[in-house]
Amino acid sequence: MAIQRTFSIIKPDATQRNLTGAINAKFEAAGLRIVAQKRIKLTKEQAGVFYAVHKERPFYDELCDFMASAPIVVQVLEGEDAIAKNREVMGATNPAEAAEGTIRKEFALSIGENSVHGSDGEDTAKEEIAYFFSGLELVG
Ligand code: CMP
In angstroms, rounded to a whole number, what is the distance separating the alpha carbons of residues 114 and 135? Predict the structure, then answer.
């Protein structure tokens, strides 16, 4: 498998509980390298653009409010098969269905407050990285 980059967010529920380091330790233990990272606070509008694909879903408004409720940490993770590996480390979207040892099993509070986001494919990874990072911020 090739070296890939994927986009990751440590969400407000996790930053507010001081879990950034614990979550990063899980990524690094899985062989994912954090090649870019910054702590920012989104407006509801910025969150809405990021999650536009979910615009028609009943949880969209709640999701955008939540993502704008406190700082988040946006990241680029790099490694072999990074997109799939990150999704494996995160666990299922709903923490009740997440496997033992995954981030969401250990830390997520609910399907909405689920601690992390990760890109679901190569095209979305590229788009999501480009939404938050400039080329100058990606130094490898
Ligand atoms: P994420 O991987 O960031 O992608 C979309 C997000 O929508 C998802 O994680 C959840 O946080 C959120 N989400 C998905 N389903 C629901 C739901 N039924 N209720 C509230 N939020 C949801």
Answer: 29
Q: Using alpha carbons, list the distances in angstroms from residue 114 to 98, 108, 111, 136.
A: 11, 4, 5, 30
Find the farthest-apart pair of alpha carbons in the chain and give their distance in angstroms, rounded. Answer: 39
Q: What is the pTM for the complete model shown?
A: 0.97
Query: 82-90 and 20-29 are packed helices; what angle lies between their axes, rounded to 10 degrees?
Result: 130
Q: How far is the CA of 63 from the centre of ligand 1 (A)?
A: 7
Does the C-beta of 85 come closer than 6 Å to ligand 1? no
pLDDT tens by residue, 82-100 = 999 999 999 999 999 999 9
Please name the residue whose Cα sits nearest to atom 2 of ligand 1: 117
N- to C-terminal Cα distance for the chain?
18
